[in-house]
Amino acid sequence: MTDRTFTLNTGAKIPALGFGTWQSAPGEVAAAVEYAVSNGYRLVDGAYCYGNEQEVGQGLKAAFAKGIKREDVFVVSKVWATYNTRVEEGLDKSLKSLGLDYVDLFLVHWPLLMNPNGNDDRFPKLPNGERDIIRDYQHPETWRQMEAVLATGKTKAIGVSNYSKKYLEELLPVAKVVPAVNQIENHPALPQQEIVDLCREKGIHIMAYSPFGSTGGPLFTAEPIVEIAAKHNVKPATILLSYHLARGATVLAKSVTADRIEANKTVVDLDAEDIKKLNDYSDKLTKEGKLQRFVYPPFGVEFGFPDKS
Ligand SMILES: NC(=O)c1ccc[n+]([C@@H]2O[C@H](COP(=O)([O-])OP(=O)(O)OC[C@H]3O[C@@H](n4cnc5c(N)ncnc54)[C@H](OP(=O)(O)O)[C@@H]3O)[C@@H](O)[C@H]2O)c1
């Protein structure tokens, strides 16, 4: 899948497969990024919040030293919620850590403001232990700053992450630049079809995160995934990745394990019967109220996701 691409609303190409770096531990992530990029991955997804961009940068640098060209790798970073009123400062910090002078895509990581003057750079807390969040903050304000950093050339495109249909409907009427991407948790146990449909209508490309259900890959044992994998004689991971290709989305797979990084480059073409089985599974979970969202930090903010409302 490493040679497949989609086209963004900016006209730029974005790879169909991306390499995830969340929760990739220090001491592991540089080698993982170097291995992935040296072995065909052409998109690396990172974020200030992950606390490992310096090592991601080392991995990129090592791959570039082997002859991979900077312009052939699509690098993604995200502004963290404590920087949502200081977007350029956040981007500058990420660029410095990565050792790059631009990223290909910069995203609003989550649409909320955590106290920029709080007791921690990334996760400020109140004296009672709750997260220190500025509750009356209006998220389109961050988008105005994203539009301003786009003009600096320090990022080639701007987009959002974790935006529900409700939040997009608040943002789009006031946006001068339509986001190029919405990066959301997406897999058959959380299809988020209402967001996917709105994004398709507005020309916003979906990047699907946590395709395996995040840490430990809890979706590998889901019944329809196992059945379809057996039918195609492949591993469940292949089916979970192929699902996004069939939906026209970029998918981000994280691993720090060489043989898994290699295996995750494989996809199969799912047929109509497979797609129906996966959609039936999603519909059943929706009807039963059993959708599974694996990544939902305890912000205590109403983001407008139907499964959390
Ligand atoms: N925008 C956001 O808010 C947001 C949120 C979450 C994630 N993301 C992005 O999306 C990326 C992917 O999501 P994720 O990290 O949550 O989880 P994921 O990619 O769904 O799953 C990662 C887990 O699956 C394991 N794994 C990977 N390939 C495997 C294979 N072929 N066979 C068996 N196990 C395998 C990994 O183990 P090992 O690493 O130990 O091999 C790890 O435990 C992130 O890294 C990040 O870049 C963005």
Automatic annotation (TrEMBL):
The keyword Nucleotide-binding does not apply. It comes from the Eukaryota. InterPro entries: AKR, Aldo/ket_reductase_CS, NAD(P)_OxRdtase_dom_sf, NADP_OxRdtase_dom. PROSITE patterns: ALDOKETO_REDUCTASE_1 (PS00798), ALDOKETO_REDUCTASE_2 (PS00062), ALDOKETO_REDUCTASE_3 (PS00063). The keyword Oxidoreductase applies. Residues 17-280 form the NADP-dependent oxidoreductase domain. It holds the Pfam family Aldo_ket_red. This is H/ACA snoRNP pseudouridylase subunit.
